[in-house]
Amino acid sequence: MNYHTQFGSLSSYRKGGVQVVDADPKHYVFSNVFEVASKSKPYEKVCVGKNLDYVIEALRTEGDSPWFAAPHDESALIMDGEVEVHLIKPDSPLTPEGKEGSVMLSGQPAGQKMGWIKARRGHMALLPKGAAYQFRSASPGVLLLQTIKGDHTVERWAEICQTTA
Amino acid sequence: MSTATAVIEEQGTANDLGYHSFSAGQYRFERDEYFAHIYYPGGRHLMHVEAFLRALMRDVGWGFFYGTVNFDDVLGTLNHYGTVDLFVGLLNQAYKSRNRHYVETFNSKDLKKVFEAMLDDWTNEGFDPYAAPDETGNAYGPKRGNNSKALKRERIVAKRMVGLPGDLDIRTDAAGQPVNRQFLDVPQDAPEVHPEPGFEGEVHAFNMFAYTSRSDVTWNPSVVSNVKDSQICATTEEHMLPIFHGNDRVEWFIQICDEIIWEIADGKTGAPRAKVIMRAGDVAAMPADIRHKGYSPKRSILIVWENNDGTLPQRYSSGQLKPYPVEF
């Protein structure tokens, strides 16, 4: 038998949902990353998962992103499309002491080129601690960022989540 | 009732079917051709032996995991990270309200030793409790051989990210890790990685979907990347989760492909609360006060996103943290 594995994409996804017996559907914080990205601006860091300070952000990849950096590792998982990740080791630290989460930089920082990655659906890239990075995508796609809540994390739960039974 | 008890593993003569019995504190475990029998002060419980072995495998492989591993709606373990409760009826409304529950507390390593020995003795050749039913033989009948090698697999944990030097290896055919029969259409292409000299160990990516498509176990989340205590755990799911997991903290699910239907019940009583239907791209939180059991009609890929902070169980159980992660 030939099995067909059903992935999702910006152009094709079929959202499930919460079927309530005795619960508040909001407690399950149910959303779909493709739906979220379909309504987001490019590289808007929309929170789709939050566990205290830790977050999973859904980003619509389209064009060149701003440069970002974080004082800890992050990971980027491509859910749709093709994305380049360009990495620079900065000449001096780019994130304030004691701050967590990614910071958005005003432009490409001075430093040494570390290399680049071309990633497609299913690929997971390391965004190493202290490095500056930029995403580049020729056409719209979606990635999930494993990180810590930062100044540019966008929380709009009531808009993205199932709120009624 | 709760008592700290030394564990004694029974190594007596096997029964007529070839199976040994085991004891832990005042619990005694016996098996026959079809059932596992659990004797405890005040009563007797039994489970279909295949369901029992599948649940036992997860409890052993996960080191009692986070929170509660309910083998069914009566029997289970509650992890205190160093000690573990083995209970009958503790999280069942009827047993608890009539004071028919029974609990003993063990040193985790002692109970794990008994469970491992029981799993090894009771698992027959050809039956793999980590495999989907369509992939393995049956668990029934008189004792015939063993499957010890298959029982040694545990939840694996990447230190930083799969594929980095010194971390978990990428899975390959050459390493004896073929793509699962239900994932033959999952692309196996590798990302293009172009490090500048000196940055070979830092500029890194791997095909996480391909890596997961080669998993030879079901319902066994393994860590693939970390941000401090934030752990992305990838797992393949087929048929049904052999336990009802009651986490002691909030966890999150991200459905990567296909569909899982989650049955959600109250963590303490087992009363039904909801069904959560998840398809590719769906994200859902599992609150800290529920138990869940998943059903995956086709083998699917799921991300289980965990917070490994060891202070969380106390912070949730004390009420310092609400059982759900976001208010809006």
Topology:
The complex is a heterodimer of chains A (165) and B (328).
Chain A: E1 17-20, E2 31-32, H1 33-38, E3 45-51, E4 54-64, E5 68-69, E6 74-80, E7 82-90, E8 103-104, E9 111-120, E10 123-127, E11 132-148, E12 153-154, H2 157-160
Parallel strand pairs in A: 3-12
Antiparallel strand pairs in A: 3-4, 4-11, 5-8, 5-11, 6-10, 6-11, 7-9, 7-11
Chain B: E1 22-24, E2 27-31, E3 35-40, E4 43-48, H1 49-61, E5 68-70, E6 75-79, E7 83-88, H2 93-97, E8 102-107, H3 108-122, E9 192-195, E10 205-207, H4 208-213, E11 222-227, E12 230-240, E13 244-246, E14 251-255, E15 259-266, E16 272-279, E17 282-286, E18 290-307, H5 312-317
Antiparallel strand pairs in B: 1-2, 2-3, 3-4, 5-6, 5-13, 6-7, 7-8, 11-12, 12-18, 14-17, 14-18, 15-16, 15-18
Helix pairs in contact in B: 1-3
Q: Summarize this, please?
A:
The complex is a heterodimer of chains A (165) and B (328). Chain A has two helices and twelve strands, in the order E-E-H-E-E-E-E-E-E-E-E-E-E-H.
Would you kindly provide a written description of the structure presented here, covering whatever features stand out?
The complex is a heterodimer of chains A (165) and B (328). Chain A has 165 residues and is mostly beta strands. The model of chain A has no long low-confidence stretch (mean pLDDT 97). Chain A is globular. In chain A, strands 3, 4, 5, 6, 7, 8, 9, 10, 11 and 12 form a 10-stranded mixed β-sheet that branches. Chain A is 6% helix and 47% strand. Chain A has a single domain (25-160), classed as Sandwich (Jelly Rolls). Chain A is built from 2 helices and 12 strands. By secondary structure, chain B is of the alpha+beta class. Chain B is 14% helix and 34% strand. Chain B is built from 5 helices and 18 strands. Chain B has helices at residues 49-61, 93-97, 108-122, 208-213, 312-317; strands at 22-24, 27-31, 35-40, 43-48, 68-70, 75-79, 83-88, 102-107, 192-195, 205-207, 222-227, 230-240, 244-246, 251-255, 259-266, 272-279, 282-286, 290-307. In chain B, the strands form 3 sheets. In chain B, strands 11, 12, 14, 15, 16, 17 and 18 form a 7-stranded antiparallel β-sheet that branches. Chain B is globular and about 65 Å long. The two termini of chain B are 40 Å apart. Classes of the chains: A mainly beta (165), B alpha+beta (328). At the A-B interface, strand 1, strand 2, helix 1, strand 3 and strand 6 of A face strand 9, strand 10, helix 4, strand 11 and strand 14 of B.
